[in-house]
Each structure stands twice: as C-alpha cells, then as structure tokens.
Specification:
6-stranded mixed β-sheet, 10 strands, alpha+beta, two-stranded antiparallel ribbon, single chain
Length: about 250
C-alpha cells in the first residue's frame, strides 16, 4: 500500500502508518496479528460499512477479508498477494485491481475465486488474472485451480431470437470480460517455501496442466521480485477448448 500511494521516505510506510492510526481512532480499522514484525491491518465492521456506503470497493466474500480472515490464518496469504501485485506492477503501471474475485457459471455449478484481477489493458485483453499459492494447498488442488480456468473459458452460451438459427458464444466474453478478444492470461505465483522447493512445485504444476487450453504463466515470488522471466506452461487455444466442451442446448 505504501509503495502504491506515496514515495515519502524509502517506501512511504510512515505515511501509511499515520493514516491507519487515524482510521483506528475513528473505529474504522484495527490490527489483528502480524506478518513478521509488521502488524496486519484490517477494516472493522464500521470500516467495511463505510466503504460499502461510499461505493469505493466492490463487494467481496467476507471469508476472504477482514478480521475473520486473519483469525482463520489468511493474513499471510493476503500479505503475499499484496507483494505479488507490487512485484508485478508497482506504482509505475498499476491502475486498478480487485482481490478475491468470484468467477461462477450457475448452469454448471462451477465457482472459484481469483486471488487478484489486475486492470492491464492491451489490444486483446482488458485484465490479467493472478493466483498466489503460499505453499499451503496440495499439488492436486493447485492443478485443479488451473483446470477450473479452462472449464470457465470453455463454457459457451447460445444466443438468438426465436425462429432464427442463432449461435454460441463464450460465456466469459458475453458476460464478464466484454472488452476482451482473448481469454485473460492466468499468472500463477508460488511462494511460502524455500526457493528450491518452489522450483520443484513449479515443474510439478507444469506437468499437471500439460495440454491446458488457456494461457498460463508461472513464476516464484522471489524470482518475480528480482525481475526474472515467467515460464509459459499453457497456451490459449479457443479451438481446442470448443472441441473439449459440449455446445449448449438450444443451438
């Protein structure tokens, strides 16, 4: 937060600390736990209501934010997500982002949360999707998350007026990322373990998602912070996705 908001001193921490203390005096923020020697701040119920009333933040699942999330052990994950966002964009390029963004398709029962969605418009896509594994989930679950994105990207909907042939279109392009020509690239960042263990996890993930039909790039948080390149482990292939997933009824 300090790096995004201000350049005061090395990274603006004193400025943010004073601001958070003022919010605490107003009953809008509080500390709950620590990441190393740094306190973890979260909004109080009054602070969350103030933001909701001001329409400054999108609604987010209560389990993923606030004091309950910290008590549930999600504090370090939230800090790591912030580190990932700053390492990828920092104050130079980042314009907007959301965390804990739900992607769901009611008809199929598919539902999952993306750790961070960064607004980074290009000629073909309006956002980039980010998953942060802090070394707490199983390898199988991590791979399943990757395949969930392919299932989401592969779902199609039928559109057409009565009495016409109509046609099918990608669900995500019609109802979510309407300004994108291609499905947003997925970035997976691995953290929370020693670097050689992260390398092993990276290779295992590449093997588990081999042949996936969405663009997937992976890196470790230490390498990302050093500015080292990403590894491409999945390629966007809408034709292959269309062959894998059935056409919707009504065509």
């Amino acid at each position: 937060m300090a790096q995004v908001i201000t350049k005061e001193e090395p990274d603006g921490r004193s400025y943010v600390r004073r601001a958070m203390n003022k919010l605490a005096e107003l009953g809008l923020a509080e500390t709950n736990g620590k990441d190393g020697k740094h306190p973890i701040w979260n909004l109080t119920p009054a602070g969350q209501k103030a933001l909701a009333d001001g329409n400054e933040l999108p609604p987010r699942p209560k389990a993923g934010t606030g004091a309950k999330a910290v008590l549930a052990g999600f504090g370090p994950h939230g800090v790591a997500v912030t580190d990932m966002i700053l390492a990828f964009g920092g104050r130079e390029h980042l314009t907007d982002w959301q965390v804990e963004v739900n992607h769901a398709i009611k008809e199929t029962g598919l539902s999952f949360n993306t750790d961070a969605v960064l607004a980074w418009p290009t000629k073909t896509s309006e956002v980039r999707l980010f998953e942060l594994d802090n070394g707490t989930m199983s390898q199988a679950r991590l791979a399943k998350e990757g395949w969930d994105y392919e299932r989401y990207a592969g779902h199609r909907v039928w559109e057409g007026a009565r009495g016409t042939i109509g046609g099918t279109f990608p669900f995500w392009q019609r109802h979510r990322y309407t300004r994108s020509q291609t499905f947003p690239r997925l970035y997976v960042v691995l953290a929370g373990k020693e670097e050689h263990l992260l390398d092993n996890r990276l290779q295992a993930l590449a093997d588990d998602v081999k042949g996936i039909a969405v663009a997937v790039w992976v890196n470790t948080l230490p390498r990302l912070q050093r500015g080292e390149p990403w590894y491409e482990i999945g390629v966007d292939d809408p034709d292959r996705r269309r062959r894998r997933y059935p056409e919707p009824a009504g065509r």
